[in-house]
Amino acid sequence: MSLLAKISTTLDDRSARLAGIALMLVSVCMFAFGDTLGKYIVATYSVGQLMLLRACAALVLLAPSMWRQRHEFRQIERPWLQFLRLVLSTFEIAAFFLATVYLPLADVVTYYLATPIFVTALSAIFLREQVGWRRWSAILIGFCGVLIALRPSAQTISWPAMIALVGSLAFSCSLLTTRLLRATPDIVLASGQFVAGLLFGLAIAPIGWVTPTWGSLGLFFAAGAISACALLCVNRSLKLAPASTVVPYQYTMILWAVMFGYAVFGDVPSFAMALGAAIIIGAGLYIFLRERELGRNESVVNPPA
Length: 305
What we know:
mainly alpha, 12 helices, 78% helix
């Protein structure tokens, strides 16, 4: 390869990485904005209504892609595991929005930021993945951050906080099932989640139904459209740049959650929540960087054929 060709390839790779980072940052902002809309909506309407109408909007946007790639739906691998993933993902989304009814947005996001820590611990237990003492140490430190944020005591622990924590565990389990289903096309995984949300909403939305105004319908559909666009941005980001490059930028979610929470709801994070979030983020980043380092070492020892 000539020098000019090498320079051109390097510049193309750099441009792709920068584009991937930009898309990840945009997607995180969009997710945070969509979560803010969801919290605003569930102050008046039920979580079931939000899940139903949000899914409708998302599926309308995804319909063209679903039609173009309809052949991907003809044979789906491991259907029972697919079903488990959809149950887990639907539960964690419902738990997230239910928790936001009672807790500041930044608090709920903090519990969900512990997901990489939970995933690493659960991978060692259920998937028999090798986890060394350094990552186990980071997992324990991350759990300490969760406890600081949770402030467990007979006087301060609350069931909304427990809902958020259980939701983050369900999210972690859904990521584990997604890892086992990595051969499944992205459009099948994405559309399946919204179809499951639609069915869940149809089942429970009639309970306490409040007829939405036209303005509220706009908010419902905006929440769904934003979620679908954010998901597409994440998928594109991961195609343009390595996960090790773009995934750490997901931690900017807490910054957006604090800003949107303060601007829209007047929420100010407590010192314990801020400290817990900092510890969780630090532990999560260490785990991520450690896994990247181990992956590089493995590729050196066992280079691809």
